[in-house]
Amino acid sequence: MDGLWEKFKMTILTMNRKELEKRVGKVTDKLEKRITDMGTPIEEVTDAEVEVEVFPNRPDLLSLENFARAVNQFAGKEKIAKFKILPPQRDFLVTIDRSVKAVRPYTVCAIVKGLRFDDAKIKDIVDLQEKLHNSIGRKRRKIAIGIYPLDKIKLPVRFVGRKNEEVKFLPLESKREMSPRQILRGHPTGREYAHLLEGVDVFPIFIDADDEVLSMPPIINSEKTGRISENTRDIFIECSGHNLIYLKKCLSILIASISEMGGKVYAMRIRDAKDGDLVTPDMSNEELKFRVEDIEKTLGISLNEKDVKSYLAKMGIFARKSEERGARGGDMVAEIPAYRTDILHWIDLTEEVAIAYGYDNFEAELPEISTVAEEDPVDRAKRVIGNVLAGLEMLECSSFHLTTKKNVKKMHYEFNDFIEVEASKTERDVLRMDLMTNMLQILSENSDAAYPQKIFEMGRVFGKVCSEELVVGSGSETGVIEEERLAIAMIDERMGFTEIKQVLDYLFKMLGVEYEIEDVEDSNYIVGRCGKILVEGLEIGRVGEIAPRVLRNWKIRMPTVGCEMKLEGLFG
């Protein structure tokens, strides 16, 4: 699916060659190899530009300034970055009103003074803004960024929710004032992102102390207060969205880049009566404990503390020996920069060490064991099933094991027995209990793609173990049981039970398994158009037409059919 691929494909960073060479030196074959070894393959080098591929896990590299810093650190020419954040001045305040909580509940902000813009710098900032929107911001769904000339607004700022008839302003690239709904219907940018505010009762609005509208995130800025130019010296930055952790990381990436342009960064106070006040940006490092022995064992090379410190420094990460009481030899602490979004676990530090060590420097070794290779039976079964369904012009998906309670309840509204993840770094904080929820999310996010859409997924789902199900040595001692399942979902304007039944008939015939369907009532499916799938008299899954209630929750406007079953049941 196009929308699903957009989430994972690499981003191309295009940089002015002269500007890059000012920071990192002449672009030679040696430097090109160093850039590639850093994990950002060179796409193209011309006399005017340098293009590199940036993987989705490194949004901090999506600007010339941040990229040049990383290259210099990798070459050992630049120390680990430190950022000076000045305390908030009087009126450096943003108040989040309760009225906006239901539609876009959080914002983080900063002020940068003393910048000197030219066309190239403005282009760099706008380019970084859009790349962050499309990567970590998931096309503005999770994060919307606004950058404003400070001289055009009066502090403090309010972030409020306003009804359509209560607000009107002149959006960028427009010649007349418009209400929020008029923008969503009549402005090109409004139409492009209208789905992000579909069905809301109030619209998120930034307003200054003179009641001038700054913007309506995540859609568009005001023409009067939201356009920077070569005359702009001081700017106000805001990031708004639904996940405070994402927003803080995004603002840190922006500040890390803009601070390289020579401005002074000032913090702002965020007054939030509901969720608590805070001061942003916070560029302090996050500490992560690790052991040198773990990295050695994983990479298969000999390392000491000095080696690890040196390799991590090349990746812009400071490491030190742990001084905690009871710490053993090899216990260390890494200080993760605020702008890094990809370091969550010591295994991520292992990858950083491997990159700095150089993959070309690893020596291949033959294992001192003798084995006969054989394809895993489960994988073999999946391959057979995948080939059958691909022959029916279906696309295979691979979605996250983690999801959100909100997504689960869109289908299973009475379900509350969640398996929660402690200290989740994202909004995905529970293990999935089925595959169909993810199938419907994919269909919902691809409503602009061509129909019919036919997708399937094979993967694990998770459930809690009842006391009578706990068997020592079975793997259920953790309290969590895992199960491999197959889910199929199809959507079109004339899709019905007959179509999904034909798919099952063909699948089971190709697998040589007898099956039958018996009527059953299931609130997730339309009554009378739902059945349980039986193999040798045992229920292995459900099939049917998805209930209108569920489709409404996912904003799906076409008939949808689906089935979900245990994989082992497909082989009797």
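(the above was protein one; protein two follows)
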Amino acid sequence: MTRPDHYDLVVLGAGFGGSLTAWIARSAGRRVLLLERGRHPRFAIGESSTPLANLKLAALADRYHLTPLKPLCKYGPWKRSHPHIACGLKRGFSFFHHRSGRPFKPDTDHQNELLVAANPDAERGDTHWYRSDFDAFLVEQARTAGVTYVDRCDVIEIHRGPPWRLRVATPTGPMDVTAGFLIDATGDSRRIADIVDAIDRTDTMQTRTYGLYSHFCNVAPWSDVLAELGGSTDDHPYPCDAAALHHVIDGGWMWVLRFDNGITSAGFSLNPRTHPPDAAGSPDEQWRSLMAVYPSIARQFREATPVFPLIRTNRLQRRLDRTAGDDWALLPHSAGFVDPWLSTGIAQTIDGIERLAPILTGDCDPLHRDWALAAYDRNVNRSFDLIDRLVAACMRSFECFDVMTSVTMAYFAAATFTEERLRAGVDVSAHGFLLAQDDRFGEIADEMYRAVGNISRLDAAAFTKRVADLLTPYNTIGLCDPARRNMYPFTGSIEPADSPASEPATQVAGRAKPRVDTANGRASTAERSRRL
């Protein structure tokens, strides 16, 4: 009998998380096998990065010498260095509130709009990842670095270690391997959950949604629809379409993410109580029925055609109670998922990879390995707890946009609080992803979730004031300011290496650089230190 090939690490699943993990381990000289059921390039969603995701991605690129990855952490360098990899410009988060059966009604005080800038210009902008290109790029980089990659394969046997023993069916015949450590990066297939006795805890989650989505061509800019409706974008802090665009509706929301190749990712996340999927007909029929109820969204999609057939999912939420053991780990997106709302998925996965990397590369002291894996498990689980509460609180408050806006401020406070510290070189790992291990912040999330439980009786003004007060210790960029009228320009710090920008935003993005409010702009160093 042929002796199995032995690898230090086997990674199941070659999405961006699995490929990046494999590449990092290989950069430290580990022998790595990356297994993929499908074949790249392939369609995938989960496309919107954030400043926190990009800061952590850049740190990984620097720490593990992943030179080709570094330019992909900002829009300008990406477009110059890798123009063949499609992406989209993300300047921030845009929200527009729609009423059933009515056209969107622009308001000069932006009572039904919220725009929060995430970066100062297009050069330093975040990105939407066109995943078929991005994932294929990471696979190729991992292979170039020396990772053994096998696609179109099926893991037909897995036996618990040590060492792990796997039998893999490949196009060229069976393959037997052993591994010192196993990473499940397969997403919702949960390939090793039963083997490691991880229990499904999805029933404990408060968020309950399902998805209806595809990629589209010929989606009109929302700014054009606003203009047709008599609205003005003159005081928007950035072009509202260059963002993670959220259309908030009754019992759900819609994402619209534009790529530079003419394709737009768009889909609904829907509460099954408000939008029962069993009564909705086919995915195409349900899409048409939603368009009929929300005429302004329908105007944006009037000429749109799907690139792929519409997909309707089962419940989006999933959760396992264990994410790591002494010789295995689930990447966060394999351990669970909440909802695409607020683009937490990519950043959470990169945060998990950052925490696992010292273990996989040998940078972690063997005496502290078990402690590090237990800490990883604790962080991932507490992250899901926090994200679930924040998302569920937002969904409970969709009918009252003022309340929803206040709840989202908690996310922006947690994200920017962390980002500011990372830019200052402060180790924030003990706080957990999005402050998930900060007990005080967790109490704030709990209080908000409970308060919006009976939204019809909630005093919106009092709630808004209460949230602003609670977030004061974490509010480093002037959130929760009524004078902003829901329009928040970028007021955060910028890494020294990024300033000045090496190329004007107009040359990168092909549009005028948006105005930046300097009257209430970036806080002074002394003031920011006091806030921190």
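Reviewer note on protein two: The domain at 89-127+208-315 is CATH 3.30.9.100 (D-Amino Acid Oxidase; Chain A, domain 2).
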